[in-house]
Amino acid sequence: MTSLAKTTLETSRPAKRAKVADAEAGAAIPELEGIRQSETQLTYLQAQLAATEALYSAYEEELQGLSNQLKGVKQAHVNAGKPLWKEGADQQAETASGSLSWPGTGDPVAFDGDSFSAIEEEVLLQTEAEQEPAAASGEAGATGAEGPGAVLGERLAALEATCSAISQEDMEAQGAVGCLAGRSGRYYLRSTAVTLGRATDTKGDVDVDLAPEEAAAAAAAAGAGAGARRAGAGAGTGQGAAAGQAHGAPGATAAGSGHSGAAAAARHSVSRRQALLRLGPDGQFRITNMGRQAVVVNDVPLPQGQTVCLPHLSLVEIGGGSSSGGDSSGGSGGVRLLFLANLAAVGRVVRRSSALVL
């Protein structure tokens, strides 16, 4: 038994030596060492990512609280009748750092005087009670002060600039060189030459079908006429009755005018081939009146067969009278379109066309 135990012990010793040798060899392999280091780095990065996520959540909650606080301060300024965006611009010009402290808070908040959100909130949140004192002060100091009209003009100019920038991004996303905005929708111009009119079976299709705009304009004119009749009904009850007894003709006149209004509504305010809108090699849009209906561009009548330049933010009226003629409604059911040019796309088209010229 003793010899057998010695033999077993001697045979097991080489196996232990082989295991130790394999472990030492494994430790000496650089790939295994790199794997161990990678696992350690991965664990560290996971812990760092968890800490970053927790910090981001805390920052997000703090930012939300500051945003709610800023909205409350803006609302308080507007309710107090303070011109928030103009006041911010004035204080920003006075301070060298370009920051101001809101009332009730101790931390300075960076404020942009041309911020669209501040202007929009001031315009939209201003109530009638705030407008009446502004109008009264404007009438009292009309001799030496600018009055509320100048302030309203500044607001509209700022909103116009911001909306124009937003429209540029919208047209870039649509791949359009221009856009016609009407009552019923927007018409994106993806070609350098487009036709305006009405799609019919006899004349075929047009690039921009203004039939929906024609219907929307007629509905708007009908609504405005109904409102005017309701407003004048109460004021003219006594005088209208006396005049009716004296002459007896106003009833027939009213019926005739209603019939003529229905006939005018039945007529189309847009010709089937009304206008041609083209982008020239110089980067200028031009519109040509090819139809029988009247076309007015920026309160300037455009006769049939004539062409005029169409700048950015131009007003095109088709089938209605000019607003300078005394009719504030813009004509009897005429189509009104606001033209917006994608200046970036126009620049690209001009550069490509100039590169093709030898």
Descriptive notes:
The chain is an alpha+beta fold and 358 residues long. It has 2 domains: 16-96 and 117-129, no CATH class; 167-350, Tumour Suppressor Smad4. 57% of the residues lie in helices and 15% in strands. It is built from 10 helices and 13 strands. The protein has helices spanning 2-28, 30-79, 84-94, 116-125, 128-140, 148-174, 211-235, 237-247, 250-266, 343-356; strands at residues 99-101, 108-110, 178-181, 186-189, 193-197, 208-209, 273-279, 285-289, 295-297, 300-302, 307-309, 314-318, 335-341. The strands form 3 sheets. The protein has a 6-stranded antiparallel sheet. Strands 6-5-7-8-11 form a 5-stranded mixed sheet. Strand 7 (273-279) and strand 8 form a beta hairpin. Helix 2 runs parallel beside helix 4 and helix 4 (116-125) crosses helix 6 (148-174). The longest helix is centred in the first third of the chain and has 50 residues, at 30-79. The radius of gyration is 37 Å and the shape is extended. The protein starts with a helix and ends with a helix.
